[in-house]
Amino acid sequence: MVPTTPSPTHLEDELVDEFLWLEDIHGERPKEWVQEQNQRTETLLDGPELASMTERVLGVMDNPSRIAAVTKHGPHYYNFWRDAQHPRGLWRRTTWESWLSDSPDWDVLLDVDELARTENVDWVFSGARLLRPRYTDGQWQRALVRLSPDGGDAVRTREFDLGTQEFVAGGFDVPTAKSSVSWVDADTLFVATDTGPGSMTESSYPRQVRRVSRGQSITDAPVIFEVPVDHAQAAVYKDHTPGFERVVAMDLVEFFTVRTYLWSEEQWVELDLDPTVSVDLHNQWLLIRPRHTLELNGIEYPAGCLLAADVQAFLNGDRSVQSVFTPDEHSSLEGWSWTRDHLILNTLHDVSSALYSTVPGEWELTALPGIPPLHSASAWAVDDEDAKVGNDYFFSVTGFLTPSSLGRGSLPDLSGPDADGAADSTARKASEPAVLKRAPSFFEAQGLEVTQHFAVSADGTRVPYFQVGPRELELDGLNPTLLSGYGGFEVSRTPGYSGATGITWLTREDQRGRTGVYVIANIRGGGEYGPSWHTAALKQNRHRAYEDFAAVAKDLHRRGVCTARKLACAGGSNGGLLVGNMMTTYPDLFGAISCGVPLLDMRRYTKLSAGASWIAEYGDPDVPEQWNYIRTFSPYHLLSAATCYPPTLIWTATSDDRVGPVQARKMAARMLDQGHDNVWFHEATDGGHAGASDNRQAAALHARSHEFMWRMLENLKGR
């Protein structure tokens, strides 16, 4: 179902926005409105039941038996950890032998809670980038630590001494902004940040990259790379791989359009490929993954395949490539990782994971074992430059009813020194992967099962979806069911364990003693079947994602899992746009909706926060021909006082600097103004696009959303 094309008069009416005043994010009047709406929503939902549920979810998120995933740098394994005693978190490290134990001995590098108290800033840890030891006498001594003051994308980047475990006095310090900062050497950085007028793109990201020397002001540093203001972002980094050092620049024209340049003979040399192609430079290899059919040397290669070429030969004009992976109608490539002598591929087959390894140059795929059906798995190199463990890899496995596990294996050593004697290797030669850590179970899964089904969309496309619920499910339409989806930016929704969802939905009982059913729809716009699955729902074809989601809802009705009054749907960000369209275009299919950090005003989305960077996904509303189709999936403009909408919770965060809070505000305000008193709004003050800066906030957000939907399905008597 697609809304009809409006008349010119209606188009003029759509340009009238009576709630523009809510776009003043920190204005006093909007803040008062937000406080009033927060109080109204809290009055509805807050109480002993929600408080108890929040504490149970927080217990999952803070549980000390969670797996402490690590990344290896030199002899140490690094981890970031939050728990009840450290809600802002600890950045820490340990040795391999200690990590294997039940109680690792952690060396705490940075206590973010203590830093926040000392500096009186609610810092949120956003990652760290370590400097290679060859620049500091063979020791891992320095890092660039990224800290957000409110959980948003804008961060402050500060130089940190791993030895003294303190920030370097007078060291590198890039002020809070949306920025990209990386090491060149011990005394030089590549910095892309806000340096004043003209330095940022219309998408709110840096358009200039500077080479900054120690002690030099960023504004005094020379600009080494620059992109037009209407492009999305500029970035430069140095590949520090010994023997393959190079400087790479990227002009992110649009979200999936990137021009890649190499610095050669004092100038930038563009990699001569279609800019919609994804590229990876590793040692002597160039990997190419096309988003559309690609022709090289008169041969056509399908979208979503993976090709390999010699970097230098390619730069010299040789377009010979070797095929590494070729998708079919059931399979897609999710990602890859390099060990010293191998390439590991993470793939999907009908949205279930399959892992492979291959030897560069030979490219024959060998399956990695241990992946059960209807599960997600990934594998990645431990440290491809380590002489002892360069072919070791980590792997993780998870499923809807299977808590995550983390293991390690080793692929055959084909070059370099013998791996014998490696203190932290789980294998000296090739080995079967071994599971080393398992996360605890947080809900009773006995009696539950995972099944996969296929709905038929409006154009005949088969759309897969996962269903999690009782094994002996009564198909009488009375089961409280939650349908989740995303359908954008080639993001795949794959199986994964959520103790929180297990508590708040799968094992919760309604008045009939029924427990919840949880469903994930793998709609077009996502990446479940590769780039073609994504591009099928771009711009003027956006309605296909919504038709797919509606088809899954109808299939749940048809199969007797639930009726409309027993079906809720939830989504965030682009998924918020998805469920916003469910509310406005398919209101009769649902009994409750939770719409988080959403895009909703597609007329002004390019003017708000990072919206301009998503034109390739949705289209440009400033182009009349494109607005003519964009307005058919702009929920803010599809609202009608005459339509009966399902109960809806719209939630966001003041500090969200990616989508921003104003679209959610205006949507709720217009609905209330039209007389829809079954819409509620809630806005957190910090937390950024995630809506939460610590586990307590995340637990409260999850519990509030699920409590709202459950309560609405429980109380809705009919439509």
UniProtKB/TrEMBL annotation:
Peptidase S9 prolyl oligopeptidase catalytic domain location is 515-714
Q: Does the keyword Hydrolase apply?
A: yes
| Sorted UniProt keywords | Hydrolase, Protease, Serine protease
Task: Give start and end of each Peptidase S9A N-terminal domain.
Answer: 10-405
Q: Identify the SUPFAM superfamilies for this entry.
A: alpha/beta-Hydrolases, Peptidase/esterase 'gauge' domain
- Region of interest: Disordered: 411-431
PANTHER family of this UniProt entry?
A: PROLYL ENDOPEPTIDASE
- According to UniProt, the name of this protein is Prolyl oligopeptidase family serine peptidase
Q: Which organism is it from?
A: Kocuria atrinae
